[in-house]
Amino acid sequence: MDASVLQAIARWPNVPAVAGWLSLDRAGRWRLHPKGDARQGGAGDPITNPGILAFIGRNYDRDEQGRWFFQNGPQRVFVRLDAAPFILRTGADGVSLHTHTGLSVNEVSAWWLDQADQLYASTDAGPGMVEGRDVAALFEAMRLEDGGDALAAAAALQPGAALRVRHPAAHDVVLLRRVLAAELETGLGFIANPAADVPEGP
What we know:
Order of helices and strands: HEEEHEEEEEEEEHEHEEH
Number of helices: 5
Shape: elongated
Protein name: DUF2946 domain-containing protein
Number of strands: 14
Structural class: alpha+beta
Oligomer: single chain
Distance between the termini: 31 Å
Strand order of the largest sheet: 8-7-11-10-9-14-13-12
InterPro entries: DUF2944
């Protein structure tokens, strides 16, 4: 987090948090909601200014409840997540991963596959959804613990079942779980549509 932001928090520690003004879409695009309608499903407007995008990325974090936020100076702005806290993309090698904010993923501790075959990962950076165009490359590098074809096994996997798989992004054998999309928030530990706390009265 930027030093100037930390200084602002220290100077004005009691600024109420807000929700409804910012979202992250499934393509990893930040979207501003001038009407404050993010929690109601509003589409919002894409943010394209490189400086603003970099500022949001540097000051993006989570609280102990699993609510992800952009720390805008002294004010915490909770983010609606259309997929996950991070959108994960592969590097030029087709194996390494980085987040939509530019963080390198050093470790994957679990994989998750929903009923639409969208791939998610628990990582040291936080939970993320793998961008659709990169899923095939990740499965090409993934193998079952015994060396078998992970993609074929995953295609036959039923909800609630899991495979033990190897992938270069994970330093050990980890689980690949088939889940329903509705189970992802609990499994990955985030709140997709967070509300701000109601300030206490005087």
